[in-house]
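About this split. The held-out portion is used to measure sequence recovery: a designer receives only the C-alpha cells and must propose an amino acid at every position. Recovery is the fraction of positions where the proposal matches the reference. Here is one held-out target exactly as it appears in the evaluation file.
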C-alpha cells in the first residue's frame, strides 16, 4: 500500500520494514533447515578452576555455517530462533549434542573424562518446552549422570514466569544438575530469586570483567558480586578473561572459575578433547 506519495517517507519505511521481515523470514527458513540437516555445530570453551588451573567444564556454544558458507554467531541467530520458536528444537539439539559429546569423551577416556558440560537454556525454552523431562531423557539415553551437566540460565528466564521457572529449576536440580546464572548483573530482575532458587554458580558478565583493571567501578561491581556469592554459598565464574593479569586479580579476589580467550576460544569437539587430554587434569 503506497499512500504517502507526497513525502515518500512512509514508503521508504514500509519498504525497509518489509525487507527486514523478509530477511528474517529467510533466516528462519534456513535455520529450520539447518536444524533438520545437521548444519549446526557445537563449539566447546573450557572453564577453569582459577586456583589450580584445571579444566572443570566446557561450555557448549552453538555455531551455524549457512548454505552460503557464512559462519553466523549465536547473537545473529539465537534471537531469530527465540522469536520464531525454533529455539525449542535448536535447544533440544544442543542439549542432546552436548551430552552425547561428554558420553563420547568418557568412552575415549575409558571412564569419567573429568569434566562437565554447560548448556545455555533460553527463557523461551523454559516457558514452552518440558525441559526437565527432555533433559532427563537425554541424560538417561546416553548413560550420563546429571552431575555432569550445568544449565546456564539468564535472569530473563526468571522474570518471564517465576512460578513455572522455579518449578522447572527444581525438577532440573532433582536430576543432579548444576545451575548457573549467566551474564549475572546485566538483567532487569530483582535479587529475590537468589534466595528462592537453588542456584549454584553466578557467572559474572564479561562487560564487568574485561577492562576491570583500568576501571575502579568495574572492580567494585565484581567484588560485590563475589562477596554476594560467597555469602550465599555460591561459586563464581568470571567470563571474558583475556589476560594473565586479569586471571591473577580474579584469583586473588576469590573468584572460583574463569573462562575466556586466555585459556581457549570455543573449539570444535575434537580439539576440545585434545586440549583436555593435554592438560594435566
Ligand atoms: P554466553 O552464554 O554468555 O557465552 C559466552 C560468550 O562469550 C560466547 O559467545 C563466547 O565465545 C564469548 N567469550 C568467551 N570468552 C571470551 C573472551 O575472552 N573474550 C570475548 N570477547 N568473548 C568471549 P558466543 O559463542 O558468540 O555466544 C553468545 C551467546 O549466545 C551466549 O553467551 C549465549 O547466551 C548464546 N548462545 C550460544 N549458544 C547457545 C545455545 O545453544 N542456546 C542458547 N539458548 N543460547 C546460546
Ligand atoms: Mg552461557
Ligand atoms: Mg555468559
Ligand atoms: Mg555473556
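Reference sequence for scoring:
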Amino acid at each position: 500500500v503506497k499512500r504517502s506519495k507526497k513525502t515518500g517517507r512512509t514508503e521508504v519505511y514500509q519498504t525497509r520494514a518489509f525487507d527486514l521481515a523478509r530477511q528474517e523470514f529467510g533466516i528462519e527458513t534456513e535455520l529450520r533447515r539447518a536444524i533438520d540437516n545437521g548444519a549446526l555445530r557445537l563449539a566447546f570453551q573450557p572453564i577453569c578452576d582459577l586456583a589450580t588451573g584445571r579444566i572443570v567444564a566446557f561450555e557448549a556454544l552453538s555455531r551455524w555455517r549457512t548454505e552460503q558458507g557464512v559462519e553466523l554467531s549465536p547473537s545473529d541467530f539465537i534471537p531469530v530462533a527465540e522469536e520464531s520458536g525454533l529455539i525449542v528444537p535448536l535447544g533440544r539439539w544442543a542439549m542432546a549434542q552436548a551430552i552425547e559429546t561428554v558420553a563420547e569423551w568418557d568412552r575415549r577416556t575409558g571412564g569419567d573424562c573429568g569434566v562437565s558440560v554447560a548448556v545455555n537454556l533460553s527463557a523461551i525454552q523454559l516457558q514452552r518446552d518440558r525441559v526437565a523431562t527432555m533433559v532427563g531423557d537425554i541424560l538417561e539415553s546416553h548413560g550420563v549422570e546429571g552431575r555432569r551437566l550445568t544449565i546456564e540460565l539468564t535472569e530473563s528466564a526468571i522474570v518471564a514466569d517465576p512460578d513455572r521457572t522455579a518449578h522447572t529449576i527444581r525438577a532440573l536440580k532433582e536430576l543432579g544438575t548444576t545451575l548457573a546464572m549467566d551474564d549475572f548483573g546485566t538483567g532487569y530482575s530483582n535479587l529475590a530469586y537468589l534466595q528462592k532458587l537453588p542456584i549454584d554458580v553466578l557467572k559474572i558478565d564479561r562487560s564487568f570483567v574485561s577492562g576491570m583493571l583500568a576501571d575502579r567501578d568495574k572492580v567494585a561491581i565484581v567484588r560485590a558480586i563475589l562477596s554476594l556469592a560467597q555469602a550465599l554459598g555460591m561459586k563464581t565464574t568470571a567470563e571474558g578473561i583475556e589476560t594473565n593479569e586479569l586471571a591473577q586479580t580474579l584469583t586473588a579476589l576469590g573468584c572460583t572459575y574463569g573462562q575466556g580467550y586466555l585459556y581457549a576460544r570455543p573449539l570444535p569437539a575434537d580439539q576440545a578433547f585434545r586440549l583436555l587430554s593435554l592438560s594435566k587434569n
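Annotator remark: Residues 34 and 141 are 24 Å apart (CA to CA).
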